[in-house]
Amino acid sequence: FFIAKWKVNERGKDEMQYTVAWSGSLNVEEGECVSSAICIPLASQKRGWGGHKGWRVYLVVFIFFFFFFFTKNGVLLLAQLLNEDPVLKLKCRTYEIPRHPGVTEQHEELSILYPAALVTIDGFSLFQSLRACRNQVARAAASGNENIQPPPLAYKKWGLQDIDMIVDHASVGIMTLSPFDQMKTASILGGYNATIKSSPPAMSQYITVGVNPFTGFFFALEGSSQPLMSHVALAVASKLTSALFNAASGWLGWKSKHEEEQVQKQKPKVEPATPLAVRFGLPDSRRHGESICLSPCNTLAAVTDDFGRVILLDVARGVAVRMWKGYRDAQVGWIQMVEDIHEREADKGTFSPFGSLQGPCRVAQFLVIYAPRRGILEVWSTQQGPRVGAFNVGKHCRLLYPGYKIMGLNNVTSQGWQPQTYQICLVDPVVGNVKTLNVPFHLALSDKKSERAKDMHLMKKLTVLLKAKDPNPECLETEVKMLLLEIRYPAIRKQGLVNILASKKVPLSSLINIVQALMDNLKSQDPEGVDEGLLQLCENQLKLLQLYISVSKLNSQGLQPETSMTDDGLATLLRLDESEITRIKMLLENYKQENTRTSVHFEDRDTELPVRTFLEFLECEKEAIMVKKMGEEDSVALGSFFFWKCLCGETVAEDMLQTLETAGLRPQELLSLLLSIWLFKEREVLKRPQSVSYLHTMLSLCGMMKGAIDESWDIQSVSPWWQQMRTVCLQAENNGAALLAARVGHAVAASITSSLVEKKFSQPAAVNAGGMTDSWEAVSLDMEHWNLLLKQLDDCLILQTLLYSKLSNPSGPVPYLLEPLSRLSVKKLLEGGRGGIADSVAKWVFKQDLTPSVLTQARQNKRKESSEEDMEVENTSLICETFTELGLERIVELLRLAYERFPCSLESDILHSHCCWEYVVQWNKDPEEGWFLTRAVDHLKCISNAHVQHGISLMMWNTFIVKRLSAATYLIEKVGKVPKDRLCRRDVGMSDTAMTSFIGSCSQLLQTLMEADIGSDEMKAPLLDIEDPWMSVEGPTSIIELALEQKHVHYPLVEHHYLLCTILHGIMKFALKSVKPLLLFDVKGKNAFFKDLTSIQLMPSGDMDPNILSLRQQYLMKVVSAAVQALPQAQKTKPPSEEPPLNISEPAVDWPSLAFDLAQHLQIQEDVIRRHFVCELYNNGLDQLAEEAIFQVHDKEVLAAQLLVLTGQRLAYALLHTQTKEGMELLARLPPTLCTWLKAMDPQDLRNTDVPILTTAKLVNKVIELLPENHGQYSLALHLIEAVEAMSSS
Q: Taking the model in full, what pTM does it have?
């Protein structure tokens, strides 16, 4: 058994190869040999890569009359004896979708031909039985269980009568006679008195070939014979050796393990056949039929005989319709091709009664005949069609035509099936190849359609010729011309001409010759029969080719360009003074410098536009040539072909424009192409100042072309010609080239308009002073649009230069890969709203990560001359030195220029607001970058107007902060300590480190919001203004406008949230444990959290619960203790000379002072926290800081008592825990009361035991100073002084 697999051949290419899947012996008993075999593919319920995944069974018939079903691995599935005669032929029919409702749906079946009988097995029954047998075999191989019985097998058995010998057969399927045929048959069989049924009966038709009759037609009425049912005996491969015949069932089976008696082989029972007489046939006593092959649509059949003939039968009528001679031992098969409906083309003048030529797909059938004696394979069109193909093959081949596909499909499952079988193939055993046939559908067309088929063949030949690798130009032109002229159909000829013009291989000269030859051929024909569309296409393409040649000649002149222009010449050309020229040159130089640093530039290759591309861009419309709608790249390519040589001075502009105008191109399209190449070649244009002169010349010539500026144009209105140019400059993103183009356009427009005005008012009646004054006022209307555009382009160029600039020595973490800033244009700024300019600068500030001080310094540089105080000059010089180190001088200078051009749009508060918003937006995208939010708060603090600051703060809180802060609060409340990183990422969306920074920034944000709320009562809201050139700006509402619309907040509610943020920040900062922040507030306080800050909420008032006060005091003491512990650690880890990196360091927070402030808001005595602070400082050995902090304590007596204990702990550690000889002697001399007191002290509470005794002596003196004499421990303090003095003296 062979199966197909994809393998790599010797050349390294994939090819289908047939490999042996299984080989071995199949016979059950000795002496058996195979008499017939067939392979049946079966559908599977599973799906594979090519649709449904199927499996195969092999039906093998032995000479002992049994037939067996095997799998591809040689495993026996079932076996049966249906007749005691040898099997002659096996044929199969599978399900096909009916082409239209009139076709009867055919059922699947397997037919087995015997010498005098025909057995048909129902396909559905066979499919179910084989599938059940396969499953049972798998179970038996695994467990040996054979209890499950497959469904019975349904079959019909006919005894064919009135025929001498049968060699082959064909099962046509179920058919229904037409009423006429029904009446004809009834009258022949029953005579004059015959009766017929109202509906024609359904019959199964069978055709046999053999002897007397040569061809016999049998018809079996449906229902005349009940199908025979038989049980299937399972066959397991592992038990083949014990196979015995079962006399009871007639099937091959095996006894169970429990049966010990021996079963003897008995003759199986065979069911009798139902007689079926031949209805009619083709009587030819001398002719012996050899084979019959039914067509795929069951309408025709091909029969071979021993006379070397191939006869074509009409199955429905039972007559021979065609005969082929000279095909002895022929093998036949069929190919059915379906028309591709998308390739169907309506003929000119064809009328369709249905109104549409797109009907159902047509089907063509071709008969394939293999003549082995001649070694030829022929393909014939049926029924009366010609031979459409012939191939020389070997004389020992075998033509395989199964006539079926996949068994087990129905009208539902067959919809998504992709056939994996071949219709027909030729096996060559000599070479070892399997070849398939593919016949184009159009070969079945006849009559006038054959011309179209020939044309399509010529078209394919032309396509192959144009795709050849290295064709000879002369031969290529000759062959292409010959093929094109041979094509008859105009539509196909037109398609061929289009393909020739689009080919890369055909040179320009050959294209002209081919088009000219075709046009001459058309003109030589009868004018009435010539296709006008094709003739017009030839004329148009010839015109475009001539234009291409003319432009190419002009571009190849190679003139020497002029030398560089002087500033005076440029000023005269552009009608500007020298100062203005100097200013423009400076702006362009800055722009060119920053643009060069920003972008990577690849050198342009000056390649000529291919002729096929040129033809794609243009189309002819009557006498004019139109430029098709195309993208920017195509416009640049065509503009470069027309005008770049002119802009470089290598081609005479007058000649080029005259050629284009003569060809029929409109001046508006030429202007668009000229500006597109000018803007695209910005880098080259800025390097060549003389190109401005060439552009001036070309614009002047274009303006004087017919159709550019109408002579009847009213000078009091805007010129459409110049408006087109202004629109292009308005939309251009190459601001340097756009500014130059606008300057040149302004100068040319002024010149042309002046000449038109002088010409219009040159009549004697109009020459007076008043008339000239009126005319110049009218001219200024159009010039006003130019002046406005020039100001806008100047501003846009300065702004774009700023956005191109970068830090030369960046310090700190520059924002990670951010999408590049979009290039600006005047149109974008006009559509960006009032905040569009500030928003663009804010994005640039974020990308460069500039601190607010840089933005402020650029404004101070502007007013530096007015500052006269020495201190300010000193500070300014220090800042300038810092900027020099960071490489900021260039950026500060560009910022200053931008501030001058946009005093309103880039006002300090507006810019800081947009920068703040940009940073917080970027932080929201990546909350891990906590310093984004820190920098946003820094910009927020720089906003001077309280109304703006209040609105931005509130918008930040509502949009980005409150949701995350709420999640963080409830997470810390749930855990009761600093959450782990995993929990922080799950609930808050950031790491634990980022969450600490986030909560600190929230505290600063709320503090800024409270300050802004207070300050807004003392100042007015700002008046938003905009620069004059940008008054027409439209677009979304700016951030500032939204901020000013915000409602005022409820101050106590903001303060309430500020307390919560500060508490959370302390927990996260110092990793405090056993602290739940919401337990520090009562029910009202908890309910007020995370509500709208502008709403009025019930706030805590009156005396607080003592338990809550106790928790608050514990929290504050923990914060103070942690802050004091962090002081020496910070000093050790951070040397004074080392500064934290810019951008990452959090703002320094004085936590002890913050704790004192919190104590006031949390109703805790501030003095308690201050005393605890002093004690913690002494406890950590920071005696000097503690002495300074003592002055802030009010109740010094209590503090002295606390410090006395701490002093005792220090002395106890020095005397008792060190246990030196001197210490023991000193301890013996101390008073017993003091010794007992010292032994009661626990020095383990000391965090710093390495304190000098002299420092401790100062502490004791401080305690004596603070304790009143009437205090109970005053005498103990005096003893401590003596002990300390003794220790210090020793």
A: 0.68
